[in-house]
Amino acid sequence: MPDIKPDTMTETGRAPGVTSAPRGADHANARPGVAKAPRQRRHRGHTGEALLALAMTTPAVVLLLVFFVVPVALMFGLAFTNARLISPRPAEFTGTENFTMLFGDSLFWASLRNTAYFAVVVVPVQAGLALVLAMLVNAKVRGRNFFRTVYFIPVVTSMVVVSLLWRFIYEPDGLLNQLISTVSFGAWEGTDWLNNPSTAMPAIMIMSIWQAVGFHMVIWLAGLQTIPGDLYEAAALDGASGWRLFRNVTWPSLLQTRTFVLITITIAAFSLFTQISVMTQGGPLDSTTTVVFMAVRTGYEQHATGYAAAVSLVFFVIVLTISLVQRFLTRERA
């Protein structure tokens, strides 16, 4: 091997033309496949996570497809046909005939007015009462867990059971009239609440608010407990208390919560059905008939599936529009 003189060495300490192997090459050459093992394990790990996620989401996706996507698609299709629930004749495409009949149907407009009346009263009253209850049970007082439980019990009770109980309360000789007679010392005997067109819908409103207010109380309570205590302390140092504290600290901090509460109450109010079906069957004189009750009765009792689908489609568009408007009005402004 020829001698290499020091003056011919490069700055890196190597002779000219002599190159070094890449860093770690000796180790990789000595043990082939070692560098690829971690990558393969990571790939198998990602595959396992993907399969687990797919297995966990599949039941929810199947339920969503079966009970939402498929019914909505059928509704859109049947709304333009003369399909009947039980008929030897196949369904035929009729275009917009169902919608023409619907917009000329006085019962549809009466049902829409009743639904709007129910929603306009129930949404603000239920949301406001739920917020008041949430603020009361959020206070640091003894027994607040007891009151939280008491307010929430009607929510976990079946709506059918609640409707039956309140129907007995509203009977002419029911608990409510007996209480009124006792308190007024017999001066007023009450009325037949569910068979009086002027009192039937307000009676259902009161029962509906009583049953559902506990659920939205919990939602408000969750929102109240996310407000930092530092905001209240800073506001108190500035002299804020009572109404000013609520208006300047509590209410602005509940923006996302009140959006959720208002939208959910509105959707529930417009989908009023169970109370009507159990307590009044749409009477008296269609004073409690709602759009959902009309659609169900038209489809299952009168077997006019196509017409019922048209009712549902129009109502779906109305509720969607109202929800979008609510979302726009309650959005967080920059």
UniProtKB/TrEMBL annotation:
Entry-linked Pfam families: BPD_transp_1 (PF00528)
Q: Does the keyword NADP apply?
A: no
List keywords of the entry alphabetically: Cell membrane, Membrane, Transmembrane, Transmembrane helix, Transport
Q: What is its main location?
A: membrane
Keyword Transport in record: yes
Localisation per UniProt entry: Cell membrane
| Residue span(s) of domain ABC transmembrane type-1 | 112-326
Cross-referenced SUPFAM superfamilies: MetI-like
Under InterPro entries, the record lists: ABC_transporter_permease, MetI-like, MetI-like_sf
- What residue ranges are annotated as transmembrane? 50-80, 116-137, 149-169, 200-222, 260-278, 304-325
Q: Where is this region: Disordered?
A: 1-43
Q: How does the entry describe its membrane topology?
A: Multi-pass membrane protein
Question: What is stated as this protein's family in its record?
Answer: Belongs to the binding-protein-dependent transport system permease family.
Q: What is this protein called?
A: Carbohydrate ABC transporter permease
